[in-house]
Amino acid sequence: MDIKVLGPGCVNCRKMEEMTRTAVKELGIEAKVEKITDIGEIARNGILSTPGLIVNNKLKHSGKPLPTIEKIKEMIKAEA
């Protein structure tokens, strides 16, 4: 599974990455979690408001408010 957390490094972006890594660990799945901070790449992925979450090339979240860890787990499981 390929998961991308997109954001320039703000507090919410770091929190999204942390929650995503926790969700993957709690689900017990194998996944590559990649943090993308390049603004050009963020835009190319269709993210207009950060943080963004892409699971297996599907946009799952963009902007605020941040989803809960449970919601992140649901987004990941939907693509498993």
List keywords for this structure.
alpha+beta, Glutaredoxin, 3 helices, 40% helix
Q: What this model shows, in words?
A:
The chain is an alpha+beta fold. It has one domain: Glutaredoxin, CATH 3.40.30. Helices cover 40% and strands 24% of the residues. It is built from three helices and four strands; from the N terminus they run E-H-E-H-E-E-H. Strands 2-1-3-4 form a four-stranded mixed beta sheet. Helix 1 (11-27) crosses helix 3 (69-77). The longest helix has 17 residues, at 11-27. It is globular and about 30 Å long. The relative contact order is 0.27. The mean pLDDT is 95.
SSE order and pairing:
Elements: E1 2-6, H1 11-27, E2 32-36, H2 39-44, E3 52-55, E4 58-62, H3 69-77
Parallel strand pairs: 1-2
Antiparallel strand pairs: 1-3, 3-4
Helix pairs in contact: 1-3
CATH superfamily, by name, is: Glutaredoxin
Please give the alpha-carbon distance between the first and last residues.
Answer: 7 Å
Helix/strand order, N-terminal first: EHEHEEH
CATH topology: Glutaredoxin
Number of helices: 3
* Structural class designation: alpha+beta
- The percentage of residues in β strands lies in 15-25%
State the helicity in percent bands: 40-55%
The biggest beta sheet, please? 4 strands, mixed
CATH class: Alpha Beta
Q: Low-confidence parts, pLDDT < 50 over ≥5 residues?
A: none
CATH arch. level architecture? 3-Layer(aba) Sandwich
Radius of gyration, whole Å: 11 Å
Lateral arrangement of strands in the main beta sheet: 2-1-3-4
